[in-house]
Design a protein that fits this description.
This protein is 31% helix and 23% strand. It is of the alpha/beta class.
Amino acid sequence: MRFQIGIVGIGKIAQTYFKVLRRIPNVQITFLCDIIPEQMKKAEHAFPDLLADVPHFSSTDEAFDSGIKPDAVLIATPLNTHFMLSERVLRRGRRVLLEKPSVSTLDELAKLYALAQKHQTRYQTMFHFAYAPEVERFASLKPQIERHLGPLRAFACDFQDPAVSGTLLTISPRKLGGSYLSSGVNALSVLNRAVDLSQLQVVSHQCRQISGLIDRNNEKVVPEVDTSSITEYATNSSAPAFLPSKAHPSESNSIPTPLTGIIRTDWEQNWNFKSTLLIFQYGTVLLDHTTQSVVLNAFSPEGFTPKFREFPMEKIAEAISPNKTASQITFHCANQISRQEREYETMFRHHFFHPEVPELAQKQDFKIHELLLNPIPRN
């Protein structure tokens, strides 16, 4: 049986959807929805094999009133429309998959989950960046990394996008909300694959907007849209105790693991660079999101030599020294398919056919948005 979806918002993100959905069998697009008819016509012309017979609507109510009952509705519209559109779909008893960041307040997020429960359906935020190739590779290696490198001690995320040229903001602030909301949510979704975010709290947050910023209509950008930010996180609680192993005979499982870190977002440098550095007790793991690679660096404290020979990776012997130890290993994850398409393809296959336990997904969604949206002083 085919998984049937409707798509709301036929803009740039939806173009990625269409490219990806061509490669996923057993998925059927049942309707397109946009307030601009030309957007849907352009999409149909660009993807005739996928969209030739798909009906167009200006609202989801029109689609549902016509008798269409998809398994899920994907919403890829500006942030300020997310809550209203999701609410409409959930009230019809249809599952919602919403682009990140999902909403502007935690209260709105709570209402969406409550609506889903009331109407016996599901709501979920789509954190596509968490399904990037290098993040998936790290997640598959995480148990072995922790066994060799010990507990996670700190992290540093650097997410930069070329969104400002001089004083011109080249993307729509209405759609993305600023560098912190747009890029910070990606960084947090990646960290969610590495650590239990419920440990973390925001210690400090600073953001700014460059002077004289204007949008593509030559209008002044509202102050709430920041062009760079830096946020510090820490925990007062202990991470799970690190269990001793033969590789770390001196490690004690009674030692608590405090965790600190920063997330930096920047639209001002006019280049695309993104990385997540994870600092463990005995080494580091660099997730280079720009080159789609994972770089493992091991420290060598006295009496301890890290061994990576247990990593079940192809051609691993070529990456390590003759004596089967190494100070650095790099896993390259890029291929001919674009990074964003691979993120969405992995995410769609997961959400459509292997969805998370609802309670766990909701808990993680709330924590990501809590760290993102909690009111904190902005200097």
